[in-house]
Amino acid sequence: MEVREIARNVFACLQEDRGLGYSNSGLVDRGGGLVVDTFWDLPHTREMIAHYARVWTEPPRRVVNTHANGDHCWGNQLFPQAEIIGHRLCAAGFAKESPAMLQALRGAVSSDDPAASSLARKLADWDFSGIELRPPDRLIEDRLALDLDGVTVELLYVGPAHTAGDVIVHLPDQRVVFTGDVLFRRCTPVGWDGTYDRWIAALDTIVALGPEQIVPGHGPLCGVDGVKEMKAYLQYVRSESQRFFARGLSAMEAARRIDLGPYAEWTEPERLIFNVHRAYREARGEPFDAPIDALALFRDMYELGLGR
Fold first, then answer.
1. Alpha-carbon span 279 to 240, nearest angstrom
2. Number of domains, the chain
3. Residue range of the domain that includes 177
4. What is the Cα–Cα distance from 52 to 229, expressed in whole angstroms?
5. What tens digit of pLDDT does each residue of 138-178 get?
6. Across the beta sheet with 176-184, what order do the strands follow?
7. Other C-beta atoms within 10 Å of 268: how many?
8. What is the rounded distance in angstroms from the CA atom of residue 137 to the CA atom of residue 164?
9. pTM for the model
10. Are 37 and 94 spatial neighbours (Cβ–Cβ below 8 Å)?
11. Angle (CA) 107 109 115, round 5°
12. Domain holding 87: CATH number?
């Protein structure tokens, strides 16, 4: 974990992408301070706070959650005096994930079920005990502009893309964008409740803003080339999935046949199965927010990884 100053009074807290949950955060140290996203558990969020404490003038008065996945918001309780800002669908999504359930899954390392044991190993670096979910208490709809002592911060709703409640954080004068999980950089994205069209449009929105520094939800800093590369991945996977769906193949059969080319070098390429399933749900005409069996998808991911 490290903190980098990417513009004056603007910082990124970056975690090396080592797989599931290694997300990034941001800090704007002006006008009372604003943190973009917390981390998946309390120990990692405390470490993040310790890094930020070396550069901030005072603890921040605001926290923005870019979406409701736990690896971007389960550390909210460690900012007890801060206003938590997020989209209304982000707040509604807090009930979909359970720290207690993940803590139980984390303990299944010695399970006779190899898929469960594999997932437990992916969760081993995290400790979900003691987490008290604190959803956003200031809800936005389409956009919100904040003036932090002369620094303009724009919160823009771009969902349903990666999730239903995706928000990006734009600092126009500094030419910085914090993307949340609208952007994964050099690691395979996972789509939850959203659509391909809206996700691709969200990436186009980021490019149109013309940022020089982009902080992805996962992976290293980049410019717009990183955004364009992920857009190409989504378009390719959707096209290939549609082709195999039309031929009557199952989602797993399609995932096994898709040639990932350069994308095979991204972290956990077997996450492809999540994106194939999304394409199949869309091809069947299912609503973007239809319930998803996440554990079944992780099982498919394990099986796909064995084959690859």
1. 9
2. 1
3. 2-307
4. 30
5. 999 999 999 999 999 999 999 999 999 999 999 999 999 99
6. 143-148, 151-157, 167-171, 176-184, 213-218
7. 16
8. 17
9. 0.96
10. no
11. 115
12. 3.60.15.10
